[in-house]
Amino acid sequence: MRAVAATASGFVAVGLDGHDMGALAWTSPDGLDWTAAPDQPAFHYFQLPLRMQSVIDGPAGLVAGGWRSDVAKGSAVTWTSTDGVTWRGPT
Q: What is the number of domains present in the chain?
């Protein structure tokens, strides 16, 4: 986990998977027990590293910021989610 945001229903954390190749998100109702979001296309960028590094909750939902590898350089990327479980992006 790299960052956590408080939401109306608990908390959402973002970070990277255990292989340091994909992004990952977790949800928690109380900050004590965490559930990983299911694997989904938004958590992968071909077979190159992808990381979620920040997250905020706003009126339209969650926005996460991060980084992806672009073969010898990196690019900033963002994701969006309404619930912390299903994510769209990276864009």
A: 1
